[in-house]
Protein backbone atom coordinates (compact mmCIF):
# COMPACT_ATOMS: atom_id res chain seq x y z
CA UNK A 1 0.00 0.00 0.00
CA UNK A 2 1.36 3.42 -0.93
CA UNK A 3 0.60 6.88 0.38
CA UNK A 4 -1.68 8.70 0.16
CA UNK A 5 -4.38 6.18 1.02
CA UNK A 6 -7.90 6.86 2.24
CA UNK A 7 -7.67 6.09 5.94
CA UNK A 8 -11.41 6.24 6.53
CA UNK A 9 -12.16 3.66 3.80
CA UNK A 10 -9.55 1.09 4.77
CA UNK A 11 -10.66 -2.30 6.06
CA UNK A 12 -9.89 -3.14 9.68
CA UNK A 13 -7.24 -5.63 8.56
CA UNK A 14 -5.54 -3.18 6.19
CA UNK A 15 -5.50 -0.49 8.90
CA UNK A 16 -4.04 -2.91 11.44
CA UNK A 17 -1.30 -3.98 9.02
CA UNK A 18 -0.54 -0.30 8.36
CA UNK A 19 -0.21 0.25 12.12
CA UNK A 20 2.05 -2.81 12.40
CA UNK A 21 4.33 -1.64 9.59
CA UNK A 22 4.54 1.91 10.90
CA UNK A 23 2.65 3.38 7.93
CA UNK A 24 0.05 4.62 10.44
CA UNK A 25 1.22 6.21 13.68
CA UNK A 26 -0.63 8.10 16.41
CA UNK A 27 -4.37 8.49 16.95
CA UNK A 28 -6.64 5.93 15.26
CA UNK A 29 -9.80 8.09 15.27
CA UNK A 30 -11.26 8.36 11.76
CA UNK A 31 -9.44 5.27 10.47
CA UNK A 32 -11.29 2.27 8.99
CA UNK A 33 -14.79 3.67 9.38
CA UNK A 34 -17.30 1.05 10.50
CA UNK A 35 -14.71 -1.21 12.17
CA UNK A 36 -14.64 -1.69 15.93
CA UNK A 37 -11.69 -0.18 17.79
CA UNK A 38 -10.70 -1.29 21.27
CA UNK A 39 -8.85 -0.23 24.41
CA UNK A 40 -5.97 -2.50 25.47
CA UNK A 41 -4.90 -3.75 28.90
CA UNK A 42 -2.15 -6.40 29.21
CA UNK A 43 -1.58 -7.88 32.65
CA UNK A 44 0.50 -10.71 34.16
CA UNK A 45 -1.51 -13.88 34.75
CA UNK A 46 -1.50 -13.44 38.54
CA UNK A 47 -3.68 -10.33 38.10
CA UNK A 48 -5.54 -11.34 34.95
CA UNK A 49 -8.11 -13.61 36.62
CA UNK A 50 -9.08 -10.91 39.09
CA UNK A 51 -9.28 -8.33 36.33
CA UNK A 52 -11.52 -10.60 34.26
CA UNK A 53 -13.86 -10.93 37.23
CA UNK A 54 -13.77 -7.15 37.74
CA UNK A 55 -14.77 -6.64 34.09
CA UNK A 56 -17.53 -9.24 34.38
CA UNK A 57 -18.94 -7.35 37.36
CA UNK A 58 -18.63 -3.97 35.65
CA UNK A 59 -19.65 -4.55 32.05
CA UNK A 60 -20.64 -0.93 31.37
CA UNK A 61 -17.19 0.63 31.97
CA UNK A 62 -15.28 -2.60 31.09
CA UNK A 63 -17.01 -4.29 28.13
CA UNK A 64 -14.50 -6.96 27.13
CA UNK A 65 -14.59 -7.82 23.43
CA UNK A 66 -11.55 -10.12 23.32
CA UNK A 67 -9.08 -11.88 25.62
CA UNK A 68 -5.88 -13.67 24.61
CA UNK A 69 -4.88 -17.06 26.01
CA UNK A 70 -2.07 -16.78 28.58
CA UNK A 71 1.20 -15.96 26.82
CA UNK A 72 -0.55 -15.75 23.41
CA UNK A 73 -0.31 -12.64 21.24
CA UNK A 74 -3.18 -13.73 19.00
CA UNK A 75 -6.88 -12.92 19.54
CA UNK A 76 -8.41 -14.57 16.48
CA UNK A 77 -11.98 -13.44 17.17
CA UNK A 78 -10.88 -9.84 16.58
CA UNK A 79 -8.71 -10.52 13.50
CA UNK A 80 -7.21 -13.77 12.18
CA UNK A 81 -3.69 -12.37 11.76
CA UNK A 82 -3.87 -10.03 14.78
CA UNK A 83 -0.67 -9.62 16.84
CA UNK A 84 -1.52 -7.74 20.02
CA UNK A 85 2.17 -6.88 20.63
CA UNK A 86 2.69 -5.02 17.33
CA UNK A 87 -0.66 -3.92 15.86
CA UNK A 88 -1.36 -0.84 17.97
CA UNK A 89 0.36 2.37 16.90
CA UNK A 90 1.29 3.37 20.45
CA UNK A 91 1.76 1.39 23.70
CA UNK A 92 2.33 2.54 27.26
CA UNK A 93 4.55 0.41 29.48
CA UNK A 94 3.73 0.59 33.20
CA UNK A 95 6.03 -0.45 36.06
CA UNK A 96 4.77 -0.31 39.65
CA UNK A 97 1.72 1.69 38.55
CA UNK A 98 3.67 4.37 36.66
CA UNK A 99 4.04 4.88 32.91
CA UNK A 100 7.75 4.46 32.19
CA UNK A 101 7.76 4.38 28.40
CA UNK A 102 5.68 4.87 25.22
CA UNK A 103 6.63 2.76 22.22
CA UNK A 104 5.34 1.43 18.89
CA UNK A 105 5.76 -2.29 19.66
CA UNK A 106 5.96 -4.44 22.76
CA UNK A 107 7.13 -7.59 20.96
CA UNK A 108 10.47 -7.59 22.77
CA UNK A 109 8.76 -7.11 26.15
CA UNK A 110 6.40 -10.05 25.66
CA UNK A 111 6.32 -12.72 28.38
CA UNK A 112 4.76 -16.14 28.66
CA UNK A 113 2.59 -15.03 31.59
CA UNK A 114 0.88 -12.05 29.92
CA UNK A 115 -2.84 -11.90 29.14
CA UNK A 116 -4.25 -9.22 26.81
CA UNK A 117 -7.71 -7.73 27.30
CA UNK A 118 -9.40 -5.71 24.54
CA UNK A 119 -12.20 -3.49 25.80
CA UNK A 120 -14.91 -1.88 23.66
CA UNK A 121 -14.64 1.85 23.08
CA UNK A 122 -17.03 4.72 22.51
CA UNK A 123 -16.02 5.21 18.86
CA UNK A 124 -18.54 2.49 17.98
CA UNK A 125 -21.56 4.14 19.61
CA UNK A 126 -20.40 7.61 18.55
CA UNK A 127 -20.47 6.43 14.93
CA UNK A 128 -24.07 5.31 15.41
CA UNK A 129 -24.99 8.64 17.02
CA UNK A 130 -23.35 10.65 14.22
CA UNK A 131 -25.14 8.53 11.59
CA UNK A 132 -28.42 9.50 13.24
CA UNK A 133 -27.54 13.19 13.09
CA UNK A 134 -26.81 13.62 16.81
CA UNK A 135 -24.07 16.15 17.60
CA UNK A 136 -20.72 15.17 19.16
CA UNK A 137 -19.51 18.43 20.63
CA UNK A 138 -15.92 17.28 21.30
CA UNK A 139 -15.63 16.20 17.65
CA UNK A 140 -17.08 19.51 16.43
CA UNK A 141 -14.60 21.37 18.67
CA UNK A 142 -11.68 19.13 17.72
CA UNK A 143 -10.85 18.23 21.32
CA UNK A 144 -10.85 15.06 23.45
CA UNK A 145 -14.13 13.98 25.05
CA UNK A 146 -14.38 15.27 28.66
CA UNK A 147 -14.16 12.51 31.29
CA UNK A 148 -14.85 12.58 35.02
CA UNK A 149 -14.18 10.40 38.05
CA UNK A 150 -17.58 9.92 39.70
CA UNK A 151 -18.96 8.90 43.07
CA UNK A 152 -20.42 5.77 41.43
CA UNK A 153 -18.40 2.84 42.83
CA UNK A 154 -17.45 -0.05 40.58
CA UNK A 155 -18.23 -3.50 41.97
CA UNK A 156 -14.85 -4.64 43.39
CA UNK A 157 -13.13 -7.91 42.47
CA UNK A 158 -9.99 -9.03 44.26
CA UNK A 159 -7.49 -6.19 44.23
CA UNK A 160 -9.44 -4.20 41.65
CA UNK A 161 -11.76 -1.46 42.90
CA UNK A 162 -12.43 2.21 42.37
CA UNK A 163 -14.88 4.78 41.06
CA UNK A 164 -16.46 4.65 37.60
CA UNK A 165 -15.05 7.13 35.10
CA UNK A 166 -17.62 8.57 32.70
CA UNK A 167 -17.42 10.49 29.44
CA UNK A 168 -19.83 13.38 28.77
CA UNK A 169 -21.62 14.57 25.63
CA UNK A 170 -24.00 17.57 25.81
CA UNK A 171 -27.36 17.05 24.08
CA UNK A 172 -30.81 18.62 24.11
CA UNK A 173 -33.30 16.55 26.15
CA UNK A 174 -34.93 15.18 22.98
CA UNK A 175 -31.50 14.26 21.58
CA UNK A 176 -30.60 12.66 24.93
CA UNK A 177 -33.69 10.42 24.69
CA UNK A 178 -32.71 9.45 21.13
CA UNK A 179 -29.12 8.81 22.28
CA UNK A 180 -30.39 6.42 24.97
CA UNK A 181 -32.28 4.50 22.27
CA UNK A 182 -29.30 4.37 19.91
CA UNK A 183 -26.57 3.49 22.39
CA UNK A 184 -28.77 0.88 24.13
CA UNK A 185 -28.24 -1.16 20.95
CA UNK A 186 -24.51 -1.40 21.71
CA UNK A 187 -24.17 -3.05 25.14
CA UNK A 188 -20.68 -4.38 24.34
CA UNK A 189 -19.30 -0.89 23.73
CA UNK A 190 -20.54 0.84 26.92
CA UNK A 191 -24.23 0.80 25.93
CA UNK A 192 -26.80 3.26 27.27
CA UNK A 193 -25.80 6.28 29.34
CA UNK A 194 -25.42 5.72 33.08
CA UNK A 195 -26.56 9.22 34.06
CA UNK A 196 -27.86 12.48 32.66
CA UNK A 197 -28.84 16.01 33.60
CA UNK A 198 -27.56 16.27 37.16
CA UNK A 199 -23.74 16.06 37.46
CA UNK A 200 -23.95 16.90 41.18
CA UNK A 201 -25.71 13.59 41.87
CA UNK A 202 -22.64 11.59 40.75
CA UNK A 203 -20.01 13.69 42.49
CA UNK A 204 -19.06 16.02 39.62
CA UNK A 205 -18.57 19.48 41.09
CA UNK A 206 -17.38 21.44 38.05
CA UNK A 207 -18.51 20.18 34.66
CA UNK A 208 -15.98 22.55 33.02
CA UNK A 209 -13.08 20.88 34.86
CA UNK A 210 -12.97 17.27 33.61
CA UNK A 211 -10.50 14.86 35.23
CA UNK A 212 -9.38 13.62 31.80
CA UNK A 213 -9.79 15.04 28.28
CA UNK A 214 -10.94 18.58 27.56
CA UNK A 215 -13.94 20.71 28.60
CA UNK A 216 -16.64 21.29 25.95
CA UNK A 217 -19.37 23.87 25.55
CA UNK A 218 -22.80 23.01 27.00
CA UNK A 219 -25.45 25.22 25.38
CA UNK A 220 -28.43 26.74 27.19
CA UNK A 221 -30.86 24.17 25.85
CA UNK A 222 -28.64 21.16 26.53
CA UNK A 223 -28.05 18.77 29.40
CA UNK A 224 -24.90 16.73 30.08
CA UNK A 225 -25.28 13.03 29.24
CA UNK A 226 -22.82 10.57 30.81
CA UNK A 227 -21.60 7.20 29.55
CA UNK A 228 -19.42 4.66 31.39
CA UNK A 229 -15.91 5.10 30.05
CA UNK A 230 -13.06 2.76 29.06
CA UNK A 231 -10.68 4.89 31.11
CA UNK A 232 -12.20 3.21 34.19
CA UNK A 233 -10.13 0.00 33.80
CA UNK A 234 -6.90 1.96 33.29
CA UNK A 235 -7.69 3.96 36.39
CA UNK A 236 -8.35 0.90 38.57
CA UNK A 237 -5.31 -0.92 37.17
CA UNK A 238 -3.08 2.08 37.99
CA UNK A 239 -4.46 2.08 41.54
CA UNK A 240 -3.36 -1.56 42.01
CA UNK A 241 0.21 -0.54 40.99
CA UNK A 242 1.04 -3.82 39.26
CA UNK A 243 4.76 -4.52 38.89
CA UNK A 244 4.26 -4.73 35.11
CA UNK A 245 1.42 -3.82 32.73
CA UNK A 246 0.94 -2.57 29.18
CA UNK A 247 -1.92 -0.43 27.83
CA UNK A 248 -2.54 1.44 24.59
CA UNK A 249 -1.38 5.07 24.49
CA UNK A 250 -4.34 7.51 24.62
CA UNK A 251 -6.12 7.60 21.25
CA UNK A 252 -4.01 4.77 19.81
CA UNK A 253 -6.57 1.98 19.73
CA UNK A 254 -6.57 -1.57 18.41
CA UNK A 255 -8.39 -1.67 15.07
CA UNK A 256 -10.24 -4.98 14.67
CA UNK A 257 -11.91 -6.89 11.84
CA UNK A 258 -15.27 -6.74 13.60
CA UNK A 259 -17.82 -4.26 12.31
CA UNK A 260 -19.65 -1.81 14.59
CA UNK A 261 -22.95 -3.11 13.19
CA UNK A 262 -22.12 -6.64 14.47
CA UNK A 263 -22.20 -5.22 17.99
CA UNK A 264 -25.75 -3.87 17.62
CA UNK A 265 -28.16 -6.15 19.47
CA UNK A 266 -31.28 -4.99 17.63
CA UNK B 1 -70.87 -12.88 36.94
CA UNK B 2 -71.66 -12.01 40.52
CA UNK B 3 -70.01 -9.60 42.94
CA UNK B 4 -67.48 -9.57 44.39
CA UNK B 5 -65.24 -10.43 41.42
CA UNK B 6 -61.50 -9.85 41.08
CA UNK B 7 -61.36 -6.83 38.79
CA UNK B 8 -57.61 -7.03 38.21
CA UNK B 9 -57.78 -10.65 37.02
CA UNK B 10 -60.71 -10.28 34.61
CA UNK B 11 -60.13 -10.76 30.89
CA UNK B 12 -60.55 -7.72 28.66
CA UNK B 13 -63.77 -9.15 27.26
CA UNK B 14 -65.26 -9.91 30.70
CA UNK B 15 -64.37 -6.42 31.93
CA UNK B 16 -65.91 -4.83 28.83
CA UNK B 17 -69.12 -6.83 29.26
CA UNK B 18 -69.22 -5.77 32.91
CA UNK B 19 -68.91 -2.14 31.81
CA UNK B 20 -71.68 -2.65 29.24
CA UNK B 21 -74.04 -4.20 31.79
CA UNK B 22 -73.35 -1.53 34.40
CA UNK B 23 -71.63 -4.00 36.77
CA UNK B 24 -68.52 -1.82 36.46
CA UNK B 25 -68.88 1.95 36.62
CA UNK B 26 -66.33 4.75 36.90
CA UNK B 27 -62.57 4.62 36.57
CA UNK B 28 -61.10 1.59 34.76
CA UNK B 29 -57.60 1.82 36.28
CA UNK B 30 -56.61 -1.49 37.85
CA UNK B 31 -59.19 -3.52 35.90
CA UNK B 32 -58.19 -6.44 33.64
CA UNK B 33 -54.44 -6.26 34.28
CA UNK B 34 -52.41 -6.86 31.14
CA UNK B 35 -55.13 -5.74 28.73
CA UNK B 36 -54.78 -2.57 26.67
CA UNK B 37 -57.08 0.30 27.58
CA UNK B 38 -57.76 3.16 25.19
CA UNK B 39 -58.92 6.77 25.01
CA UNK B 40 -62.01 7.42 22.87
CA UNK B 41 -62.84 10.18 20.38
CA UNK B 42 -65.98 9.96 18.23
CA UNK B 43 -66.35 12.55 15.46
CA UNK B 44 -68.73 13.20 12.54
CA UNK B 45 -67.32 12.01 9.21
CA UNK B 46 -66.73 15.56 7.94
CA UNK B 47 -64.06 15.96 10.66
CA UNK B 48 -62.90 12.37 10.90
CA UNK B 49 -60.61 12.42 7.83
CA UNK B 50 -58.81 15.49 9.07
CA UNK B 51 -58.47 14.03 12.55
CA UNK B 52 -57.05 10.79 11.15
CA UNK B 53 -54.43 12.82 9.28
CA UNK B 54 -53.70 14.81 12.44
CA UNK B 55 -53.15 11.57 14.35
CA UNK B 56 -50.95 10.18 11.57
CA UNK B 57 -48.78 13.31 11.80
CA UNK B 58 -48.65 13.22 15.61
CA UNK B 59 -48.27 9.56 16.52
CA UNK B 60 -46.69 10.21 19.92
CA UNK B 61 -49.63 12.09 21.48
CA UNK B 62 -52.25 10.40 19.21
CA UNK B 63 -51.31 6.74 18.77
CA UNK B 64 -54.42 5.28 17.14
CA UNK B 65 -55.00 1.62 17.95
CA UNK B 66 -58.44 1.23 16.33
CA UNK B 67 -60.87 3.09 14.04
CA UNK B 68 -64.45 2.15 13.26
CA UNK B 69 -65.90 2.23 9.75
CA UNK B 70 -68.23 5.22 9.22
CA UNK B 71 -71.46 4.66 11.12
CA UNK B 72 -70.21 1.36 12.58
CA UNK B 73 -70.14 0.74 16.33
CA UNK B 74 -67.87 -2.31 15.98
CA UNK B 75 -64.04 -2.27 16.02
CA UNK B 76 -63.32 -5.99 15.70
CA UNK B 77 -59.53 -5.67 15.97
CA UNK B 78 -59.98 -4.51 19.58
CA UNK B 79 -62.64 -7.06 20.56
CA UNK B 80 -64.93 -9.23 18.43
CA UNK B 81 -68.10 -8.29 20.30
CA UNK B 82 -67.04 -4.71 21.05
CA UNK B 83 -69.78 -2.04 20.88
CA UNK B 84 -68.15 1.38 21.10
CA UNK B 85 -71.46 3.05 22.04
CA UNK B 86 -72.05 0.98 25.20
CA UNK B 87 -68.79 -0.59 26.42
CA UNK B 88 -67.21 2.38 28.16
CA UNK B 89 -68.39 3.09 31.72
CA UNK B 90 -68.59 6.86 31.16
CA UNK B 91 -68.98 9.05 28.04
CA UNK B 92 -68.81 12.79 27.60
CA UNK B 93 -71.07 14.38 24.99
CA UNK B 94 -69.73 17.57 23.44
CA UNK B 95 -71.77 20.19 21.55
CA UNK B 96 -70.02 23.17 19.96
CA UNK B 97 -66.83 22.35 21.86
CA UNK B 98 -68.43 22.17 25.29
CA UNK B 99 -69.22 19.11 27.44
CA UNK B 100 -72.99 19.08 27.81
CA UNK B 101 -73.54 15.69 29.39
CA UNK B 102 -71.89 12.64 30.97
CA UNK B 103 -73.66 9.31 30.50
CA UNK B 104 -73.11 5.54 30.61
CA UNK B 105 -74.17 4.80 27.01
CA UNK B 106 -74.38 6.73 23.75
CA UNK B 107 -76.38 4.10 21.86
CA UNK B 108 -79.38 6.42 21.49
CA UNK B 109 -77.14 9.26 20.24
CA UNK B 110 -75.51 7.13 17.54
CA UNK B 111 -75.58 8.45 13.96
CA UNK B 112 -74.70 6.99 10.59
CA UNK B 113 -71.97 9.58 10.06
CA UNK B 114 -69.95 8.94 13.23
CA UNK B 115 -66.43 7.54 13.26
CA UNK B 116 -64.85 6.25 16.50
CA UNK B 117 -61.13 6.54 17.20
CA UNK B 118 -59.47 4.55 19.99
CA UNK B 119 -56.13 5.99 21.09
CA UNK B 120 -53.49 4.17 23.13
CA UNK B 121 -53.07 5.20 26.74
CA UNK B 122 -50.25 5.36 29.25
CA UNK B 123 -51.63 2.54 31.41
CA UNK B 124 -49.86 0.13 29.03
CA UNK B 125 -46.37 1.60 29.44
CA UNK B 126 -46.93 2.28 33.14
CA UNK B 127 -47.61 -1.43 33.63
CA UNK B 128 -44.28 -2.20 31.96
CA UNK B 129 -42.48 0.38 34.13
CA UNK B 130 -44.03 -0.97 37.32
CA UNK B 131 -43.10 -4.52 36.36
CA UNK B 132 -39.48 -3.35 36.07
CA UNK B 133 -39.60 -1.83 39.55
CA UNK B 134 -39.71 1.81 38.42
CA UNK B 135 -41.74 4.12 40.69
CA UNK B 136 -44.98 5.80 39.56
CA UNK B 137 -45.28 8.68 41.99
CA UNK B 138 -48.90 9.56 41.15
CA UNK B 139 -49.91 5.94 41.79
CA UNK B 140 -47.98 5.89 45.09
CA UNK B 141 -49.69 9.15 46.10
CA UNK B 142 -53.11 8.00 44.87
CA UNK B 143 -53.63 11.03 42.61
CA UNK B 144 -54.01 11.64 38.88
CA UNK B 145 -50.83 11.95 36.80
CA UNK B 146 -49.83 15.63 36.36
CA UNK B 147 -50.27 16.90 32.78
CA UNK B 148 -49.06 20.13 31.14
CA UNK B 149 -49.76 22.09 27.97
CA UNK B 150 -46.33 22.62 26.39
CA UNK B 151 -44.74 24.94 23.85
CA UNK B 152 -44.18 21.91 21.58
CA UNK B 153 -46.54 22.40 18.62
CA UNK B 154 -48.34 19.44 17.12
CA UNK B 155 -48.06 19.13 13.34
CA UNK B 156 -51.36 20.63 12.11
CA UNK B 157 -53.82 18.85 9.79
CA UNK B 158 -56.83 20.68 8.39
CA UNK B 159 -58.69 22.31 11.25
CA UNK B 160 -56.77 20.41 13.92
CA UNK B 161 -53.78 22.12 15.53
CA UNK B 162 -52.49 23.00 18.97
CA UNK B 163 -49.80 22.32 21.55
CA UNK B 164 -48.77 18.88 22.73
CA UNK B 165 -49.97 17.94 26.20
CA UNK B 166 -47.52 15.85 28.22
CA UNK B 167 -47.75 13.75 31.36
CA UNK B 168 -44.92 13.81 33.91
CA UNK B 169 -43.37 11.14 36.11
CA UNK B 170 -40.41 12.00 38.41
CA UNK B 171 -37.49 9.56 38.26
CA UNK B 172 -33.80 9.49 39.19
CA UNK B 173 -31.55 9.95 36.15
CA UNK B 174 -30.66 6.23 36.07
CA UNK B 175 -34.38 5.34 36.31
CA UNK B 176 -35.13 7.85 33.54
CA UNK B 177 -32.63 6.10 31.26
CA UNK B 178 -34.24 2.74 32.06
CA UNK B 179 -37.70 4.25 31.46
CA UNK B 180 -36.61 5.42 28.00
CA UNK B 181 -35.54 1.85 27.21
CA UNK B 182 -38.77 0.32 28.51
CA UNK B 183 -41.26 2.74 26.99
CA UNK B 184 -39.44 2.78 23.63
CA UNK B 185 -40.80 -0.77 23.25
CA UNK B 186 -44.37 0.60 23.20
CA UNK B 187 -44.57 3.07 20.29
CA UNK B 188 -48.31 2.56 19.89
CA UNK B 189 -49.02 3.70 23.45
CA UNK B 190 -47.04 6.98 23.44
CA UNK B 191 -43.62 5.29 23.37
CA UNK B 192 -40.43 6.95 24.64
CA UNK B 193 -40.52 10.23 26.58
CA UNK B 194 -40.49 13.41 24.50
CA UNK B 195 -38.54 15.45 27.04
CA UNK B 196 -36.78 15.26 30.39
CA UNK B 197 -34.98 17.28 33.01
CA UNK B 198 -35.71 20.83 31.88
CA UNK B 199 -39.41 21.81 32.04
CA UNK B 200 -38.53 25.43 31.15
CA UNK B 201 -37.42 24.34 27.67
CA UNK B 202 -40.93 23.17 26.78
CA UNK B 203 -42.82 26.12 28.23
CA UNK B 204 -43.65 24.70 31.67
CA UNK B 205 -43.20 27.51 34.19
CA UNK B 206 -44.38 25.84 37.40
CA UNK B 207 -44.01 22.07 37.61
CA UNK B 208 -46.19 22.11 40.77
CA UNK B 209 -49.11 23.68 38.84
CA UNK B 210 -50.12 21.14 36.18
CA UNK B 211 -52.78 22.13 33.63
CA UNK B 212 -54.59 18.80 34.16
CA UNK B 213 -54.38 16.17 36.90
CA UNK B 214 -52.62 16.70 40.21
CA UNK B 215 -49.15 17.86 41.30
CA UNK B 216 -46.75 15.17 42.61
CA UNK B 217 -43.62 15.29 44.73
CA UNK B 218 -40.29 15.51 42.89
CA UNK B 219 -37.49 14.41 45.22
CA UNK B 220 -34.03 15.99 45.41
CA UNK B 221 -32.37 13.26 43.37
CA UNK B 222 -35.09 13.12 40.68
CA UNK B 223 -35.75 14.84 37.38
CA UNK B 224 -39.14 15.28 35.70
CA UNK B 225 -39.64 12.96 32.70
CA UNK B 226 -42.31 13.87 30.15
CA UNK B 227 -44.36 11.64 27.84
CA UNK B 228 -46.74 12.73 25.06
CA UNK B 229 -50.24 12.45 26.48
CA UNK B 230 -53.59 11.23 25.16
CA UNK B 231 -55.20 14.41 26.47
CA UNK B 232 -53.65 16.15 23.44
CA UNK B 233 -56.35 14.95 20.99
CA UNK B 234 -59.16 15.97 23.36
CA UNK B 235 -57.53 19.37 23.70
CA UNK B 236 -57.22 19.94 19.94
CA UNK B 237 -60.74 18.59 19.29
CA UNK B 238 -62.15 20.98 21.89
CA UNK B 239 -60.32 23.87 20.18
CA UNK B 240 -62.05 23.06 16.84
CA UNK B 241 -65.44 23.31 18.62
CA UNK B 242 -67.15 20.61 16.54
CA UNK B 243 -70.96 20.79 16.51
CA UNK B 244 -71.04 17.24 17.93
CA UNK B 245 -68.45 14.90 19.42
CA UNK B 246 -68.22 12.13 22.03
CA UNK B 247 -65.22 11.20 24.19
CA UNK B 248 -64.67 8.96 27.19
CA UNK B 249 -65.08 10.57 30.59
CA UNK B 250 -61.71 11.05 32.37
CA UNK B 251 -60.43 7.72 33.71
CA UNK B 252 -63.26 5.74 32.06
CA UNK B 253 -61.34 3.99 29.30
CA UNK B 254 -62.24 1.38 26.71
CA UNK B 255 -60.95 -2.03 27.83
CA UNK B 256 -59.88 -4.10 24.82
CA UNK B 257 -59.03 -7.75 24.13
CA UNK B 258 -55.51 -6.83 23.10
CA UNK B 259 -52.72 -7.50 25.57
CA UNK B 260 -50.12 -4.88 26.53
CA UNK B 261 -47.38 -7.33 25.57
CA UNK B 262 -48.73 -7.44 21.98
CA UNK B 263 -47.87 -3.76 21.70
CA UNK B 264 -44.21 -4.30 22.62
CA UNK B 265 -42.09 -4.07 19.46
CA UNK B 266 -39.07 -5.89 20.88
TrEMBL record, chains A, B:
Taxonomic superkingdom: Bacteria
Keyword Ribonucleoprotein among record annotations: no
Gene3D superfamilies according to UniProt: PSTPO5379-like, PSTPO5379-like domain
Cross-referenced InterPro entries: D-Glu_cyclase, Putative_hydro-lyase, UPF0317
One Pfam family linked to the record: D-Glu_cyclase
EC number annotated for this UniProt entry: 4.2.1.-
Any one GO molecular function term: lyase activity
Keywords: Lyase
NCBIfam families given in the database record: PRK05463.1
Family to which the UniProt record says this protein belongs: Belongs to the D-glutamate cyclase family.
HAMAP family in alphabetical order: Hydro_lyase (MF_01830)
Protein name per the record: Putative hydro-lyase DA075_11610
Higher taxonomy: Bacteria, Pseudomonadati, Pseudomonadota, Alphaproteobacteria, Hyphomicrobiales
